[in-house]
Amino acid sequence: MSLAETLYVNGRVFTCQASTPWVDSIGVQGERVRASGNREEVGRVLRPDARVVDPGGRLTVPGFVDAHNHYFATAEDLASVDVRHPTVGSVEDLVEALRQRAERTPAGRWVRGFGLDDAKFPGDRRPSRVDLDRVTGDHPVAAHHVSGHHVLVNSMALALRDLDHRAADPPGAGSFGARGGG
After folding, report:
1. What percentage of the chain has pLDDT greater than the value 70?
2. I want to staple 173 with a disulfide (CB 3.0 to 4.6 A). Which of 100, 102, 137, 177 is the partner?
């Protein structure tokens, strides 16, 4: 019994090989990639009756299986300030890293940091909204935690969502609600 063969053509195929990281075609037999390159090269390896699939120039990453990823967050990180530890090791380091980005960002545009791990900062002091208010008065600021499960923002960011001291804690927030940490 022979395995089905498929020729994928007209793609943007990322091979993960240093010698040829990008090709436009791959040949697959069953669940295995048998060849990669241009359509002619790959077509010579497969049977003439191989099924042809045209992904229309879209990105193809053969063999890539990711059970859990936050693509949107990853894309946002590429446009954000890296505030991971140990480069940012204190509240003042955080404020300074974000201030430097704010100086190069048009007023009113977001200034974002990613990878905040304030549990590694010395002592018990954690950054707060008040600290991010010191970064800039002209930008909403957000510092996304390394866990991806929470974010610290400045007063301007809160105001954009009509959140102030009158906002109720979300259900189940307990002592870690919207007003915790200043």
Report:
1. 91
2. 177
Question: Does residue 174 carry a pLDDT above 70?
Answer: no
Closest CA to 6 of 65, 68, 52: 52
List pLDDT tens digits, range 7-19.
999 999 998 889 9
Report the distance separating Cα 179 and Cα 176, nearest Å: 8
Q: Give the 3-state DSSP-derived string for 64-123, with helices as H, strands as E and coil as C.
A: CCCCCCCHHHHHHHHCCEECCCCCCCCHHHHHHHHHHHHHCCCCCCCEEEEEECHHHCCC
Contacts of 104 (CB under 8 A, 6+ apart): none
The token duo for 160 is 């954009």
- Domains belonging to the chain, first-starting first, are 5-60 (2.30.40.10), 71-176 (3.10.310.70)
Distances (CA, A) of 83 to 13, 43, 69: 32, 48, 20
Residue 176 — very low, low, confident or very high, per pLDDT cuts 50/70/90? very low
Q: Is the dihedral of CA 6, 8, 14, 19 positive or negative?
A: positive
Tokens 């380091």 correspond to 93
User: Which token pair is 12?
Assistant: 């943007």
